[in-house]
C-alpha cells in the first residue's frame, strides 16, 4: 500500500473507533431507555376516557329492577326500562330484569344508553338450560 493512501486510511479508522467509543460512553452515562413507548412525548397527553377508567356493564339478569337501577345509577347512568308484557311498572321490586343492553362486560361510554327489559316476578320464566329450541 502506498504511504499517501495509508495515512488517511489509518486516520479514518482511528477516528471511527474514537467516535464509537465516545458514543458508547454517552449511552452508558445516559442510563436505560424508557420501557414504555412514547413515554417522553406523550407524558402530558391523557385521553379523556381511557379503557382503564371506563366502567363495564355488570350482569343484571334476574335481579329486581330497583337493585339493577341502583347499580347502574352508581356508575352514573339512568336506565330506560321497557316492560315485556305491556303492563305499567308500579312497584320496581316486583319486577325482574330479563334482558339488558349493552351486554354484560361491555365498556360503558358516557353517551351510551342503558336499557332494561323487565317482567313481573310472578310470570313464569323458562330456564335457559331447560328450554327447548321450539316455541
Oligomer: single chain
Beta-strand residue percentage: 5-15%
Going across the biggest sheet, name each strand in turn: 1-3-2
Number of helices: 2
According to DSSP, the number of beta strands is 3
Roughly how many Å apart are the termini?
97 Å
- Compressed to H and E, one letter per element, the order equals HHEEE
Q: Pairing-aware structural class of the strands and helices?
A: alpha+beta
Average of per-residue pLDDT values = 77
- What does the radius of gyration come to? 33 Å
Biggest sheet layout: 3 strands, mixed
Uncertain regions: pLDDT < 50 for 5+ in a row?
A: 39-47
Q: Kindly state the percentage of residues in helix.
A: 25-40%
**Given the C-alpha coordinates, what overall shape results?**
rod-shaped
What does this 3D model show about the protein?
The protein has 135 residues and is of the alpha+beta class. It is 28% helix and 13% strand. It has two helices and three strands; from the N terminus they run H-H-E-E-E. The protein has helices at 3-30, 65-74; strands at residues 80-83, 95-101, 115-120. The chain has a three-stranded mixed β-sheet, with helices on one face. The radius of gyration is 33 Å and the shape is rod-shaped. The model is unreliable at 39-47 (pLDDT under 50).
Amino acid at each position: 500500500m502506498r504511504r499517501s493512501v495509508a495515512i488517511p486510511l489509518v486516520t479514518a479508522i482511528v477516528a471511527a473507533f474514537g467516535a464509537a467509543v465516545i458514543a458508547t460512553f454517552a449511552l452508558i452515562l445516559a442510563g436505560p431507555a424508557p420501557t414504555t413507548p412514547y413515554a417522553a412525548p406523550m407524558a402530558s397527553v391523557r385521553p379523556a376516557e381511557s379503557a382503564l377508567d371506563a366502567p363495564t356493564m355488570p350482569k343484571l339478569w334476574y335481579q329486581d329492577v330497583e337493585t339493577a337501577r341502583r347499580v347502574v345509577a352508581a356508575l352514573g347512568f339512568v336506565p330506560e326500562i321497557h316492560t315485556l308484557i305491556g303492563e305499567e311498572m308500579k312497584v320496581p321490586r316486583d319486577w325482574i330484569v330479563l334482558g339488558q343492553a349493552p351486554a354484560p362486560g361491555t365498556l360503558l361510554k358516557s353517551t351510551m344508553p342503558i336499557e332494561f327489559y323487565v317482567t313481573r316476578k310472578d310470570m313464569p320464566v323458562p330456564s335457559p338450560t331447560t328450554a327447548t329450541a321450539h316455541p
